[in-house]
Amino acid sequence: MFARRHALLVLLALIALLSSAHAASPASFCKCTCFTNSTIIHLDDPSPYSSKSGSSKSDSSKSSGSSLFSRAKDSKKTGRTCNDCNKKFCLDYNLPICHSAKEEDVYSECFQRDSAKDQAVVVIFITATVSLLIYAAARPR
């Protein structure tokens, strides 16, 4: 009876762990390289755009900045993807290392880190393997 109850609790814990990891997605990053300096930007972070971002630039930059601000608000709702990681994104992010850079001076690269789901699969595999080894060593012969 005790073994059955214990097995049920372990099963419920594994199901809870899998269901929480199922919705996880890998973290995306954009690596912006201007000249020889690089910066890594987390694509899920809020955008640095503000309504004051175009204040020191010309009027055409102000309208461009405001459209970027509205696009940034939209992407904040939906989240940015690797498709958003391009030279224009790096230049529009207003990085200090890209202050005087032109589009040909910029290189962008997107990469992703392991998701929580991948980590959960590894932890479950290790836990199951260790549990089976302990059971095999402790069971009566």
From TrEMBL:
UniProt keyword annotations, A-Z: Membrane, Signal, Transmembrane, Transmembrane helix
UniProt keyword annotation of Manganese present: no
Stretches the record annotates as Disordered: 42-81
Biased composition (Low complexity): 46-67
Transmembrane segments: 120-138
Signal peptide range in chain numbering: 1-23
Listed name of the protein: Putative cytochrome p450
Lineage, uppermost ranks: Eukaryota, Fungi, Dikarya, Ascomycota, Pezizomycotina
